[in-house]
Amino acid sequence: MLLDFEKYIVPGMTHWGHPGWFAYFPSNSSPPSVLGELLSAGLGAQCMSWETSPAATELEQVVMEWYRKLLGLPESFTGVIQDTASSATLVAFLTARARAGDHASRFVSYASSEAHSSVAKAARLAAIPSERQRVIAVDEHFAMRADDLAAAMQRDVEAGLVPGIVVATMGTTSSTACDPLRVIGEIAARHRAWFHVDAAYGGSAAIVPEIRPLLDGVEFADSMVTNPHKWLMTNFDCSAYFVRDVDALLHAFSVTPEYLRTRHDRDSAAVNFRDWGIPLGRRFRALKLWFVLRTYGADALRGMIRKHIALGSDLAALVSAAAEFELMAPAPLALVCLRHVPAALRGNEGKLAEHNAALIANVNAHGVAHLTHTRLGGKYAIRVAIGSFRTEREHVLRVWELLQREARALTRS
Ligand SMILES: *Cc1c(COP(=O)(O)O)cnc(C)c1O
Fold first, then answer.
1. Ligand 1: which of 89, 118, 176, 238 to mutate, judged by most atoms within 8 Å of the beta carbon?
2. What is the SS3 string spanning 139-198?
3. Which helix (H) or strand (E) segment is 384 a member of?
4. Which residues pair with 137 in a beta bridge?
5. pTM for the whole thing?
6. Pick from 83, 96, 168, 159: which is nearest to 126 by CA?
7. How far apart are CA 323 and CA 341, in angstroms?
8. Percent of all residues in the chain with a pLDDT value above 90, rounded to a whole number
9. CA 240, CA 238: separation in Å to the nearest integer?
């Protein structure tokens, strides 16, 4: 069977752990994480309530406390592991809507035009009609314009609507732009709207002291999500959701039929995580995160993030200095957005998009690097996301060399 696995499955997979992985965002795995996953599978753990998994429930509490402290989040936040950031953001929406009570029919959501698609999906699943989902404009660096947010909320209040939830992003998917959380948090607080911070990718970097300022203002948040399964060596899935008002969460999610009652339901010290999210059954995800944090420790994890960010800054500098290449956004978090602009195509956005799409295809065809794209301000952009834990300088230099070589070849043809 393992021979068949090698023969049929491995060649048919997209290898996210390859050092030439620059697509999307990283989704790292690591030996301690794999060991934790293996042991959790062996235990056959089902972590819906304290009684069904006492040590798993308590370890999840311990590990989320460690992680909260590593991220420099206030003590008022309590953590729970969700499967994905998409689920966590949906949980935030559903909690905010439940909290709105009788006002739910006038509930308005706010997020920037650069927010992740999971935000629009959560709004739809929370039954917020599209005419009550506000898309706030971004500035020249793709961060939310807080003044536009304030104006939109004011208009809605005057129209008799209720500002229900504001989602800000720390590290947008297209360019790792960071919304001004403090200002946005103050505006949300003024309107008593739920303030959710989507730091799915970028949040991991906040364990590095010099990056932590990008999370400044998260103190105002009602909830925040960040994915150890992206940048923090913990294999998919493991998404950390931090929430301030646990009672609001439980009020929205807790349902206890007779067959789930245990002797510990009224014991306030026993947490039943089934009430903290959508599914009843839960995997033992805390184990792998515990193994990762203990094996590497804070310093090594910080070192890895610093290395990736430095590789990103160096590539951004190379791109800025290269004739006919354009750096399309600041690169604070190891994602470099660029495009090739040959003189003949300058100003022709349609042709530039075709040209750069061909460039990605030709680079990817070498099989040593994988790139994807986005659009920034309507312009086609190549994303080079550096964050696979085996990626070294040589791999970044190789993809840069390939980009230049294939760009020349395309321009000649
Ligand atoms: C990746 C990403 C998500 C979605 O993460 P999942 O865990 O796959 O749901 C949400 N928001 C941002 C900013 C992301 O980068």
1. 118
2. CCCCCECHHHHHHHHHHHHHCCCEEEEEEEEECCCCCCCECCHHHHHHHHHHCCCEEEEE
3. strand 379-385
4. none
5. 0.96
6. 96
7. 9
8. 94
9. 7
